[in-house]
Amino acid sequence: MNDGNTDEAFRAAHTIKGMCQNMAFTRLYASSHDITEVLRGKDLEGARQMIEKVGEDYNTVIAGIEKLLAQP
User: In the chain, how many domains are there?
Assistant: First the structure.
C-alpha cells in the first residue's frame, strides 16, 4: 500500500482473506474481508486506517500457531 497500488494491495488482501476462510481464522478473515472491500473501492486511505487491525489479528493467529507448535 505504501506505493499507492490499490490493485496489488487488493490482491494481497483477497489472498489473505481466502486463506483465512479456508483455515477458519475467523478474526483475521473478518478484518481481511473488511480491508478487501475497502480496497475494492480503491479507497487507499480507508485501507490504511484498517491495516493496524489486520496486523493485530495476524499476530494473534501467528501466536496461536506458535503455541501449538511448542506443545510436545
Answer: 1
